[in-house]
Design a protein that fits this description.
It is a single chain. The chain is an alpha+beta fold and 691 residues long. The protein has two domains: 49-374 and 631-685, D-Maltodextrin-Binding Protein, domain 2, CATH 3.40.190.10; 389-627, Dipeptide-binding Protein, Domain 3 (Dipeptide-binding Protein, domain 3, Roll). The protein is 26% helix and 17% strand. The protein is built from 19 helices and 24 strands. A six-stranded mixed beta sheet has the order 17-21-16-20-18-19, with helices on both faces. It has a four-stranded mixed beta sheet with strand order 3-13-11-10. Strands 6-7-9-8 form a four-stranded antiparallel beta sheet, covered by helices on one side. It is globular, with a radius of gyration of 26 Å. The termini are far apart. Bound molecules: galactinol.
Length: 691
């Protein structure tokens, strides 16, 4: 027996066809307006990747004097034995302030909270640069903002080099040799093997950023060659974007010596226990990152101490990092801006326009503790309609009926026509910052093409026409459209209320939909609850910042379309693994797969245009606004690269290369909480001293 909603949904679909024959013309589509000119402050100094760092043995190495006391006490091997045969060497000429000195702390303030340390089973560290400082990946993209276009491809990192086979069907990867985890255990292909077979390829395990086989190309396999060499085999030739999929968020191996025994396939009790095996009160969890967590005071602070086995040095042979300690004050994202401007915090991505004007005023004062520099307009917000019609997220009858509407092109047009994006932007901040965003590839980025971008501009009459074309009428005269013969359509809008911007945009969208006659109610969730609801399909619509794929297209490329069961943000497979793609989605999938496998730049550009046309004409997502963000860093820090963007190939926490940032001796705060201490053994209560 069909429920009232199902009957209504079916009627809506049937009516949608006939109603289209009777309504007036909707406003013609245009291209998004030219963004108001906004010059990023500070231009990067463009170099080649090899100018930033290389791998080589140096005649001698050194460490902070207080670390040598651990060696003297027999608690650590000599520094030369803790380093790889050929460490990663940062080049002095590329350091704005040259080789640094040891000591001091960088005091981050963040809005997230660490859930646990099993990043590979989806546990969030709380974002805000915690994970970026602990988890390192095969390749690195953050510093690419400063790399010449002619040399633009991912930088080596834990993967020291790679070589394509003649036919491009396989890639042989060489790991750095002799690097060690922060507890001294060897980093080698045992870690690669576990990550690939027991994380990426295990359908019961979802790493935090969702890496799956499709991330590396459907059908891709991986074989171990020796302790430091492995090979990936592909189904298409030269899928060069896989090198980007080996960077942060995707191919970032975990310590298999810790994780494997907890995995159900290797003696662990269950997948749930595996995910929860290293809770956030577990200290000294081994890292490849420059620091290791030694203390976590819930809702207060996470403290890290330098990793004594870190595998990077400067050209003088000084083992990195220079900064001995990292703080992550567990507060709110808005407080991050406030504390950095006030000088009680050291770093912020000023990404909430509500704080722009006050921050600019404060930063302009001579005594301002932090430097503030706006980068390009790379923050984009969009509205994502849940496009699954076959049960992803287990919707109730109401939710299913809304999903059926989401799958109706006229309904998605109505959403866009109802949006006054100029007013939305001005509700966040007045001035040349915000600009209407059509969705898809962002304006001002290398693959953006205006002629391929279809924009359904603000026009309430057209929004009402489009709702009628979707078979929706206000049959009870209460100002909101109804399902045919049924109740008001009521859409829930999921938003991350950890950010004032997300909440303000959601409230603006709800008000504008009401003006067009569509009832929408806010479902505001915090941090990880938002992420889980979004990634679990538990929503009708959500709004969120865009990912890096909308800026570069060469990163997270698989997330541009539902090329796999869980690659697309707003259309994933149901519990049976089935994807009910709409015809335009099928075309987007083949376009994205062709883009992934295409080496010819001209052909890639054409594929990007095809993608942008499909995405924006069909309103796969409905863009809201785009705006720039500003990097704010306390002035005592040296080696901050010029023009470092808040978000481009990665977040600024990666872009500024914190492992080579330092504080000159005469400017150090003396604010370390565990001075002269190192991480203890995995599971120890906290840091340890040499004595
Ligand atoms: C930057 C970033 C570093 C995640 C997170 C957070 C999560 C999302 C996103 C940003 C925070 C900061 O962003 O807002 O400025 O420091 O951490 O990782 O929004 O909720 O899931 O994608 O990166």
């Amino acid at each position: 027996m069909k429920t009232q909603f199902q009957r209504a949904a079916m009627a809506a679909l049937l009516l949608g066809v006939s109603a289209a024959a009777v309504h007036a013309e909707m406003m013609a589509t245009t291209q998004p307006p030219e963004p108001p000119k906004f010059d990023a402050q500070g231009e990067p100094i463009y170099v080649n990747r090899a100018d930033i760092y290389e791998y080589k043995a140096l005649p001698a190495y050194s460490e902070p004097a207080w670390v040598t006391e651990f060696v003297t006490a027999g608690k650590l091997p000599p520094v030369a034995e803790r380093l790889p045969k050929e460490p990663l060497v940062f080049k002095t000429a590329n350091m704005p302030d040259g080789n640094g000195v040891y000591g001091d702390v960088m005091r981050h303030v963040i809005g997230g909270r660490p859930e646990g340390w099993n990043f590979w089973a989806g546990k969030s560290y709380g974002w805000g640069g915690i994970d970026i400082g602990l988890v390192e990946c095969l390749t690195r993209t953050g510093p690419l903002f400063t790399v010449n276009a002619a040399d633009l491809q991912p930088m080596p990192n834990l993967a020291k080099s790679w070589e394509w086979s003649e036919d491009g069907m396989s890639l042989t990867v060489k790991l750095i040799e002799g690097a060690k985890w922060s507890d001294g255990d060897a980093f080698d292909t045992e870690d690669i093997d576990f990550y690939w077979n027991d994380v990426v390829m295990d359908p019961e395990v979802t790493p935090l950023m969702g890496a799956s086989q499709e991330t590396y190309g459907a059908g891709t396999t991986l074989e171990i060659i020796d302790a430091y060499t492995f090979k990936m085999n592909f189904t298409t030739a030269f899928p060069e974007s896989v090198l980007y999929a080996m960077a942060y968020g995707n191919f970032c191996p975990g310590p298999s010596h810790m994780l494997k025994p907890k995995h159900p396939k290797h003696g662990g009790t269950s997948y749930e226990d595996f995910a929860n095996s290293f809770p956030s009160d577990y200290m000294n969890f081994p890292t490849m990152g420059a620091w290791t967590v030694v203390e976590h005071r819930p809702d207060d602070i996470v403290i890290m101490r330098r990793n004594p086995y870190y595998w990077k040095v400067d050209e003088a042979g000084q083992q990195l990092p220079y900064l001995d300690e990292m703080h992550f004050r567990l507060s709110t994202w808005g407080d991050r801006d406030v504390q950095t401007i006030a000088g009680t915090g050291d770093f912020s991505n000023l990404e909430q326009p509500e704080n722009f004007v006050e921050s600019l005023k404060k930063a302009a004062e001579d005594t301002a503790p932090a430097r503030l520099a706006f980068g390009p307009r790379t923050i984009g917000y969009a509205l994502f309609p849940n496009l699954s019609g076959n049960g992803w997220g287990e919707p109730d009858a109401r939710g299913q009926a809304v999903r059926e509407l989401n799958r109706n092109h006229d309904f998605r047009k109505a959403i866009s026509y109802a949006l006054d994006r100029v007013r939305l932007g001005e509700s966040l901040v007045k001035g040349p910052f915000t600009t209407p965003y059509a969705g898809g590839v962002m304006q001002g980025t290398s693959f953006y093409d205006a002629a391929s971008t279809t924009f359904f501009p603000f026009d309430v009459a057209s929004a009402k026409e489009a709702l009628a074309a979707a078979g929706l009428e206000d049959s009870d005269g209460n100002g909101f459209v109804n399902f045919a013969g049924g109740e008001d359509v009521n859409v829930t809008l999921l938003a991350n209320i950890d950010y004032a911007t997300d909440k303000n945009l959601a409230e603006g969208v709800i008000a504008m939909m009401a003006d067009a006659g569509l009832k929408v109610t806010l479902n505001g969730l915090s941090g990880k609850d938002f992420d889980n609801a979004r990634d679990g399909g538990k929503y009708d619509w959500f709004i969120n910042r865009n990912g890096v794929e909308w800026i570069t297209m060469v990163q997270n490329t698989a997330m541009l379309a539902p090329v796999g069961p869980s690659t697309d943000a707003n259309h994933r497979a149901n519990a049976a693994g089935e994807l009910d793609l709409l015809p335009y989605e099928e075309e987007m999938v083949s376009t994205v797969n062709a883009f992934i496998g295409e080496r010819d730049p001209a052909k890639r550009t054409e594929l990007a245009k095809t993608y942008q046309k499909l995405h924006t004409e069909n309103l796969d997502t409905i863009g809201l606004v785009a705006f720039p963000a500003a990097l704010m860093v306390n002035k005592r820090f040296a080696n901050i690269p010029a023009g470092a963007p808040v978000f481009m190939y990665n977040w600024a926490e990666d872009n500024i290369m914190r492992e080579r940032v330092f504080v000159p001796a005469d400017k150090q705060l003396g604010a370390e909480e565990h001075a002269n201490m190192l991480p203890g053994a995995p599971g120890d209560a906290g840091p340890v001293s040499a004595k």
